[in-house]
Amino acid sequence: MSFWGRLIKQLRTEQGVTQRQLSQAARVPRPTIIRIENGDCPGFFDQMERIFSALGYELEALPVNPDTHDFGPAKLQSIEGISTTKEGFVRKIQITSFSYRRGKVSGSDWAVFDCRDLRNPHNVRELRDLNGQDPAVRKYVADSPGVQEIVAKAVSLAVKGSKSCFAFGCVGGKHRSVAIAEMLSERLDELGFDVDLRHPEITCRS
Question: Which domains does the chain have, with CATH numbers?
Answer without folding.
Answer: 3-86 (1.10.260.40), 92-205 (no CATH)
